[in-house]
Write a structure and sequence with these properties.
Number of helices: 11
GO biological process, one term: L-amino acid transport
Structural class: alpha/beta
Order of helices and strands: HEEEHEEHEHHHHEHEHEEHH
Shape: globular
Helix content: 25-40%
CATH class: Alpha Beta
Domain ABC transporter: 14-246
Family: Belongs to the ABC transporter superfamily.
CATH superfamily: P-loop containing nucleotide triphosphate hydrolases
GO molecular function, one term: branched-chain amino acid transmembrane transporter activity
InterPro entries: AAA+_ATPase, ABC_transporter-like_ATP-bd, ABC_transporter-like_CS, BCAA_Transport_ATP-bd_LivF, P-loop_NTPase
Strand content: 15-25%
Distance between the termini: 32 Å
Radius of gyration: 18 Å
Length: 250
Amino acid sequence: MADESAAEAAPPLLQLEGVAVDHGALRAVHGIDLAVHEGEVVSLIGANGAGKSSTLNAVAGLLPLAAGHVRYRGEAVEALPAHLRLARGIALVPEGRGIFARLSVDENLRLGAYTRRDKAVLAADLERVYTLLPRIRERLGQPAGTLSGGEQQMLAIGRALLARPRLLLLDEPSMGLAPRLVDALFDTIAAIARDGVSILLVEQNAALALELAQRAYVMANGRIALEGAAAALRDDPAIRRAYLGGTENP
């Protein structure tokens, strides 16, 4: 009980305060607040164009803020470039995977560790990735572009893990994957969370996202429309109608 109270009292690992993001002349995100605590999986769901990916890209440093603050481990990091945020433990697996098709699987993986100098620890981390993603070990010498969609997604996740993130940002990881591959993917994400990595997940499959997460936010038109315990949102009739395909509990 004391440990739970201490965890609740601790500042969030990630905290967004009044974050706004523009795309050209258009505002994609309108002053949102959001938090992820140590060891937590938080899902961000909503319709296409709601501002979810823009939020992740702003956290990772790929999009500038129009307003607000991104705090990581209590420190404002919005002025830091993306590579320094990665070095501090914020890793993004982007929508579309972002692999380098002509490079080998091994070369793609090692790009995730380009900020690291601890070669002995890196070797152990590679073994951990191979254990978590055994199909990747079997294909190290192949051009990454020859992998299936599911294997490419696993490669993108493995590459991010080699940065040793404390916070993993996942942007639509199941997009374009067959249902059987989605189940395997979410098993892998759950295993990563059990290892203590905090996760902020943007996911089109709201049912799976809410099943995996402890807490969730619902975005609409660039704003946070709802937030709360994932289980409570999963049982909310309005959420079920909008995102889960029905109003009745399963």
